[in-house]
Amino acid sequence: xxxxxxxxxxxxxxxxxxxxxxxxxxxxxxxxxxxxxxxxxxxxxxxxxxxxxxxxxxxxxxxxxxxxxxxxxxxxxxxxxxxxxxxxxxxxxxxxxxxxxxxxxxxxxxxxxxxxxxxxxxxxxxxxxxxxxxxxxxxxxxxxxxxxxxxxxxxxxxxxxxxxxxxxxxxxxxxxxxxxxxxxxxxxxxxxxxxxxxxxxxxxxxxxxxxxxxxxxxxxxxxxxxxxxxxxxxxxxxxxxxxxxxxxxxxxxxxxxxxxxxxxxxxxxxxxxxxxxxxxxxxxxxxxxxxxxxxxxxxxxxxxxxxxxxxxx
Length: 313
Hints:
- By secondary structure, the protein is mostly beta strands.
- It has four helices and 14 strands.
- An eight-stranded antiparallel beta barrel has the order 1-4-5-7-8-12-13-14. A two-stranded antiparallel sheet has the order 10-11.
- It is elongated, with a radius of gyration of 30 Å.
């Protein structure tokens, strides 16, 4: 009984002594957080990127002249693809509509309305230098491939007067590349306050602030003329608007590859999860005020990102 009592008292004293440990923060004392080693970190980020619609109209079918300025309707890529020249373009529209000349029309009022970006996949590599466990600087470089979508119409005309004209709806799609470089600071919040209360938290909030550089490249602009009623063999409903072809199929005009560079800034908030001594995981939201430059278009807008970042020490 005496041995058991001594053992129980010893365990209790050991437990209480561990919980009652006091740090003199004024002298720089305190527990060493798992990620407190000063130095370089490397990691990677994946996430979802939500582009605003400010530059989506670039892919609305008008296309660009060689100097980077938007075409008018008469010279627009979409008008050429539907009405020709060459005449084979108009025949392709006949096939798509399953109709003859004069039974349909395409005018400027049929051009796409509002174009919008779909959410896209974001990825980057992340390099961080921590001055202490809770503050450091970083650079990350990665990209995303936004896709913008919309609709245009072709009017199926009725010359009998028995019924009204019918609008047939078709899809238009634009694709681009964005290379994004962020340089900023990383600050973890609340660790010391938690440790003063005797806690050693593994999840803490953080903030990021910095500047961003965005390289944008026009990639593609397509339409889909599939109505499901075509009965012509080997009919291809997918049309690349940026390439105009001769009757024999050879290219007589092709769009310049538009590129541009823009400056901006970002802010991020999130939670940092510590896993052992060498790994941290960040869950965050990033508000990125990016400038997108393509041709004559130069737009500044807020792009939203939701990210998952893994960091290794």
